[in-house]
């Protein structure tokens, strides 16, 4: 059974499995950081949320929400600086990470979803993803990753997955 988490930033409380607990107030953490019973650490701001999972050692992030959102694997440096008060656009910093998932429903065309890493659910188990419209086929995603410079940090992973698909 997957745990559902709800954050109430005004009360600094966390709901895990229908049980409200007070988030510990750590002097070294910003007001945007919460700890869960499952030991995941979160930071959030307007239109973004980041997570550190000490069990896996992964730093991940989500930009947007609902039918328009992106998931990223980020590094510790991005996680540490994403909530700096002098950072004007945290989402620009987050988007420097490795893009995992993108759902688009911006009313400029039909909705679509691009799965850049099929393991996105394992990497970001906390994220609430909503698939929008058609899911791009692997061949189209592979081509987009090879063409677009913004997806360069996905090329190695996509090439490895393509080789695995071709061997089957």
Provide an overview of this structure:
The protein has an eight-stranded mixed sheet. The protein has a three-stranded antiparallel sheet with strand order 1-2-3, with no helix packed on it. A hairpin with a 7-residue loop joins β9 (98-104) and β10. The protein is built from five helices and eleven strands. It has two domains: 5-136, no CATH class; 138-168, no CATH class. It is globular. By secondary structure, the protein is an alpha+beta fold.
- Please, how many helices? 5
Neighbour order of strands in the largest sheet: 4-5-6-7-8-9-10-11
Mean pLDDT: 79
Q: Using only CA atoms, what is the Rg?
A: 17 Å
What features would you highlight for this structure?
2 domains, alpha+beta, three-stranded antiparallel beta sheet, 32% strand, 23% helix
Question: Quick recap of the structure?
Answer:
The protein is of the alpha+beta class and 168 residues long. Helices cover 23% and strands 32% of the residues.
Give the secondary structure arrangement, pairings included.
Layout: E1 5-8, E2 13-16, E3 19-22, E4 33-35, E5 41-45, E6 48-53, E7 58-65, E8 68-74, H1 76-81, H2 90-94, E9 98-104, E10 112-115, H3 120-123, E11 134-135, H4 138-147, H5 155-167
Parallel strand pairs: 10-11
Antiparallel strand pairs: 1-2, 2-3, 4-5, 5-6, 6-7, 7-8, 8-9, 9-10
Helix pairs in contact: 4-5
């Amino acid at each position: 059974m997957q745990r559902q988490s709800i954050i109430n930033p005004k009360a600094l409380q966390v709901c895990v499995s229908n049980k409200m607990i007070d988030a510990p107030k750590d002097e070294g953490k910003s007001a945007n950081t919460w700890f869960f019973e499952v030991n995941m650490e979160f930071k959030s701001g307007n239109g973004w949320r980041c997570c550190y999972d000490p069990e896996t050692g992964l730093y991940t992030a989500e930009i947007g929400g609902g039918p328009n959102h992106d998931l990223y694997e980020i590094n510790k440096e991005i996680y540490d600086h994403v909530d700096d008060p002098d950072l004007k656009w945290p989402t620009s910093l987050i988007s420097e990470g490795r893009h995992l998932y993108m759902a688009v429903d911006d009313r400029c065309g039909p909705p679509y979803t691009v799965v850049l890493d099929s393991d996105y659910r394992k990497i970001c188990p906390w994220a609430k993803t909503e698939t929008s419209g058609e899911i791009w086929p692997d061949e189209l995603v592979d081509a987009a990753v090879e063409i677009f410079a913004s997806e360069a940090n996905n090329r190695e992973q996509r090439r490895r997955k393509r080789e695995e698909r071709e061997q089957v």
